[in-house]
Amino acid sequence: MDAEIASQKDIRSKAVIDAEEKERRRIAQDLHDGVGQILSAAN
């Protein structure tokens, strides 16, 4: 029973970390695109 609970917690933790990583990549891409647009406008 304890092993099952630990396994479920581990699965949930990995899912949270995975979601956070995806959000970080999305934000990084948005920032990158935004800077590119600003630099293009500046030219």
Would you write up a description of this structure?
The structure is a single chain. The chain has 43 residues and is an all-alpha fold. Helices cover 95% and strands 0% of the residues. The chain contains one helix and no strands. The protein has one helix at residues 2-42.
Give a short synopsis of this structure.
The chain has 43 residues and is an all-alpha fold. The protein has one helix spanning 2-42.
The biggest beta sheet reads: none
H/E series: H
Average pLDDT metric = 93
Percent in helix: over 70%
Report the β-strand fraction as a percent range: under 5%
From the helix content, strand content and strand pairing, which structural class follows? mainly alpha
Q: What distance lies between the first and last C-alpha atoms, to the nearest angstrom?
A: 64 Å
**Global outline:** rod-shaped
How many separate helices? Answer: 1
Give the low-pLDDT segments. Answer: none
Number of strands: 0
Radius of gyration: 19 Å
Q: Characteristics of this structure?
A:
about 45 residues, mainly alpha
Topology, element by element:
Layout: H1 2-42
